[in-house]
């Protein structure tokens, strides 16, 4: 997309967001044309709420060092707050409020699609009836598929494992059954040589992290924040769960290169699970004081830096923003990167103002 095109703010920001979201290298200098001679964004843009919203959404795909997008984020966010109270038509105001709560890039794609359908449906003047119909049909079809998959889930049979305590038998036997039968039989002989081995090794790493955290609990130990993250990012499943996602993917997409990439703990993976780990810690911090629990990231951060809960939450917000900016294009297939990025998106929704993991009834409306 050349910098000398005639696109308006809405179209320019939309194209930038969609193309960068799909892994294309997009130069942020395309927004320079919207600045005045003093290097500031033109005030005339304030009269275009739809364009400002599009710009705001685009800024969430910024990378470290892209100052113009950082400026655009501050500029657009400041004005969108006032637009939300007085924008006409009403559906645009609702769309702005939703974007300020969870931007498109941080939301779960299917949930954001449902929200957008409702906004678009109210745009009586310019909506395309055929497009709206197909959007609804697509959403309902995928939702039905997900509901059927949930209905097919069942527990596996367990065998007697005399060497383990009772409370561990069901966990261990289920894992064995999944890996040694369900998954092993599903994979081809070639895939078994690396997919199966890599995933098992990563499961072992997670168990080792569990033991380290159990020792912290036994010793009543609150580790430095960096030490906490070193284990917490593994115990949350950054390697094992992601590897498990790759198991059912075609080898052309999730081949040995993908598993080696995962084993090297790429920045994008760390960023996604950093969001997941600390979002959980922030929301669950108060309830975990009521029972014996290993020290969480909030406690470690507060103790190490002598900060209050409010100050720690503010610091974590900065960590989250930096983590989202870490997702740059790589040679890894987009299908792989999406599964990693979706972890961060899931956590943004799951821990939005509540612990949706512990209390999943609060998320029920997203499924039904």
TrEMBL record:
It holds the Pfam family Terpene_synth. InterPro entries: Isoprenoid_synthase_dom_sf, Terpene_synth_N, Terpene_synth_N_sf, Terpene_synthase-like, Terpene_synthase_metal-bd, Terpenoid_cyclase/PrenylTrfase. GO terms for biological process: terpenoid biosynthetic process. Residues 153-325 form the Terpene synthase metal-binding domain. Signal peptide: none annotated. It comes from the Eukaryota. Keywords: Lyase, Magnesium, Metal-binding. GO terms for molecular function: magnesium ion binding; terpene synthase activity. Residues 4-100 form the Terpene synthase N-terminal domain. Belongs to the terpene synthase family. Tpsa subfamily. This is Sesquiterpene synthase. It comes from Dipteronia sinensis. The lineage of its organism: Eukaryota, Viridiplantae, Streptophyta, Embryophyta, Tracheophyta.
